[in-house]
Specification:
Layout (H helix, E strand, L loop, with lengths): L4 H6 L7 E2 L1 H8 L3 H10 L1 H4 L3 E4 L2 E5 H11 L10 H24 L15
Antiparallel strand pairs: 1-3, 2-3
Length: 120
């Protein structure tokens, strides 16, 4: 498939955006049939990230972009999509900030702890 590998590598998906095949082809600068073939190859993966708008089928842009990058061997298939990664990372940052605050408030009593040996 004639994707521009450099442009494809620098493309990112910022929001959850659903696009039809024509819009996807314009963004990736390829013909519609190329996108149709890409969707055929990754049909199982894209099954849950599509929706209908009238007669048109819309696909989640982040998942289409990831499939194109996997196809061109820019990325590997084991990584989750941006739609999954972003909320997870935001949640993880909040958890870590809460942990930092808890550790700051907790008095440092490392030497006050007594260790009991199991032989006593």
């Amino acid at each position: 498939m004639p994707f521009n590998k450099l442009k494809l590598a620098e493309m990112t998906a910022d929001s959850e955006e659903y696009l039809d095949i024509d819009s996807i082809a314009e963004r990736l600068e390829v013909v519609n049939r190329t996108i149709e073939r890409l969707i055929e190859v990754f049909a199982k993966k894209l099954k849950k990230s599509k929706r209908r708008s009238g007669r048109k089928i819309l696909y989640l842009w982040s998942d289409i972009l990831q499939c194109a990058k996997i196809h061109m061997k820019i990325e590997r298939e084991g990584t989750p999509s941006v739609a999954i990664t972003r909320p997870y990372m935001e949640q993880r940052v909040k958890e870590l900030e809460a942990e930092i605050e808890r550790l700051k408030k907790e008095p440092s009593s490392g030497s006050a702890q007594s260790v009991v040996s199991p032989l006593e």
